[in-house]
Amino acid sequence: MTSPPAPGASGARPTDARRLLVVMDVDSTLITGEVVEMLAAHAGSEADVTEITERAMRGEIDFAASLHARVATLAGLPVGVLDAVRREVELTPGARELVEELTRRGWPVALVSGGFAEIVEPLAASLAIAHTRANRLEVADGALTGRVTGAVVDSEGKAQALRDFARAEGVDLRDTVAIGDGANDLGMLAVAGLSVAFNAKPLVRAHAHVALDGRLDQVLALLDR
């Protein structure tokens, strides 16, 4: 793979006068696990859900259809399970360091997820991240219904989220960075000025400017070129 272009038209090292926007996937990127699988473990459907997740992340099946199929297995789970899963979430090594350094530089960070706002929003708040977009689980009578509300945040939804965040922050698309691991991240990776495949599936690695494995704060070295 060729060396990635640095964000911005000139390719120069970012300066204090220029702001970058970094948009990250959540499941298996910012955090180590897949939240839908963590929920499925409480429903006894983890094996089936994991298989569907893997196929969706490899781009073998439609993401929206896969999400509906996986969430359907969660029907009847008490809403209190969400609290348990929030406690189970683990940040990827280097994730906190990356976010803290970006914040120190005054560069906005956003999370966009095919997972669930009920997990993503508290996680973002704990890291002082202002922008999020994710699916929302439907709840009735204190239990998950097995459905999501509103439009599914799929590949195009993630791409649109990146555009919306850039517009809100006044950042040119050339100065955006997208980080993700699965096929549903391809849309935002294609839009961003710099695309990073992190611990990613082969399909995603082939379409990103650069591929990284291991610690998430390795991204900082790319931004300083």
UniProtKB/TrEMBL annotation:
GO annotation, biological process:
L-serine biosynthetic process
Q: Which cofactor does it need?
A: Mg(2+)
Which keywords, in A-to-Z order, does the entry hold?
Amino-acid biosynthesis, Hydrolase, Magnesium, Metal-binding, Serine biosynthesis
Task: Report the SUPFAM superfamilies cross-referenced here.
Answer: HAD-like
Gene Ontology terms: cellular component:
cytoplasm
A GO molecular function assigned to this protein is: L-phosphoserine phosphatase activity
Name of the protein in question: phosphoserine phosphatase
What gene does the UniProt entry assign to this protein?
serB
